[in-house]
Amino acid sequence: MPQDRDRIEDQAVEWVIRQRDPAFADWDGFADWMAQAPAHAEAYHVAAIADQDMADLLATPVPKPLAPPAPRRAVGRRAWISGAIAASLAGVIGWQVIERQPALYSIETIPGTRRTVTLPEGTVVMLNGGTRLTLDGKDPRHAVLERGEALFAVVHDEARPFSVAVGGATLLDVGTRFNVLREGGTTEVQVSEGAVVYNPKAEAVRLDPGKTLRAVDGQGEVTLGTVAPDRVAGWTSGRLVYDGQPLAAVAADLARYAGRPVRVAPALAARPFHGALNLGPDGDLAKLGPLLDVEVRRDGAGWALAPAK
């Protein structure tokens, strides 16, 4: 409806104006608004581009006219938004203090919560607990995983590949569904569909379905492995599957999923675990003790994994 579109455009212009303020901090509110409907992201992108056009215009010296001005043309949607931004800024902060602000915004989940975000071009990102993901309002084909875990279901576009920056590396999709974990200076990637290229301008390691990669900051080599494609991102359904990962890594996964700290006795931290853990909605980890061959007991607000008695 025209009224709805006008309202969304007004909101988009308001977000662009607010983000020009160096003190702007409501990125969570902006991310929520962007995720509410594809029309929000579309309107914001139009407003942001119009804003850039206006900034470029202000930076260009205006010569004296050599001829009478041309007849006025009909004002298009993008030009109208540019004018709205200009008028608002002139009234609020004045022309001399206009300052460009980045179009980046972050989405963050606390431990124990999960969230699904649909990007404007259709890519779906599922965030596990304790995750921070940064997106670019001007480039919906790029994301930065700062920490935590996320499952990417990418809409493939050969002309505009989707990329994920993580831990100083870049993942480039080839029509893909893949899981990325970033924690403690370590990056782990698992692919269930399509393919991912790890650091296309350096190592250029291709990961096909069922392939995994582990990279540690400061180490020049990556470790490759395998996983059943249907086991990738089992956390989305409350099922964690392991094939020799240390209990310290298992504990970190449990903490991220359950939203409570999980401490591991030093003697157990490096012990490998093979098996599957089914996590219920009650958050009770004590039942996992026999499966892990440890004692799981309460530890303040969290849990502790200790040697079985």
TrEMBL record:
Domain annotation FecR protein: ranges: 107-196
Q: Where are the transmembrane segments?
A: 79-98
Q: Which UniProt keywords apply?
A: Membrane, Transmembrane, Transmembrane helix
From which residue to which does any coiled coil extend? none
Q: Which Pfam families match?
A: FecR
Task: Give the InterPro entries listed for this entry.
Answer: FecR, Ferrdict_sens_TM
What protein name is recorded for this chain?
Answer: FecR domain-containing protein
Q: Taxonomic classification, please?
A: Bacteria, Pseudomonadati, Pseudomonadota, Alphaproteobacteria, Sphingomonadales
